[in-house]
Amino acid sequence: xxxxxxxxxxxxxxxxxxxxxxxxxxxxxxxxxxxxxxxxxxxxxxxxxxxxxxxxxxxxxxxxxxxxxxxxxxxxxxxxxxxxxxxxxxxxxxxxxxxxxxxxxxxxxxxxxxxxxxxxxxxxxxxxxxxxxxxxxxxx
Length: 140
What we know:
By secondary structure, the protein is α+β, with helices and mostly antiparallel strands. The chain contains four helices and six strands. Strands 2-1-6-5-4-3 form a six-stranded mixed sheet, with helices on one face.
C-alpha cells in the first residue's frame, strides 16, 4: 500500500510541475483546508484549488525548481478508509542541494483512489507561500 501511496504522491508532483492543475485537482476534496504553521486557508472550490496549484507551481519555477520529489516519512494505519501521510517534498534545483517542505496529508481511500481531505504544512521552504495563502483567502 505504501508503494501505491508513494506513486500517487509522485504523480501529484509530476502533474503540478507539468502545469496540469485540473488533472491534479481530482485527487483533492473541496473545500480543502490548508494549514500553514500558525494560519490556515481553505480552497473552497475546484477553481480556487487550481489557482492555488498554479500559484505554487509558478513560485517553484521562479526559484529554478525543476522537479519535486515526495518522501513518505510515516503512514498511519487506516481507520475505516481514512489515514494520514507524513511527507517531505524535496524541491530539486539543478546544481544545488534540494530544499524541503514537510506536510501531513489527511487522506481517504475510495475505490482504489486516494483523496486528500486536508493538508497541514509543518515546514515550508518557500516564503512565497504566505502570498499564495493570501490568494486563497481572497477566493474564499
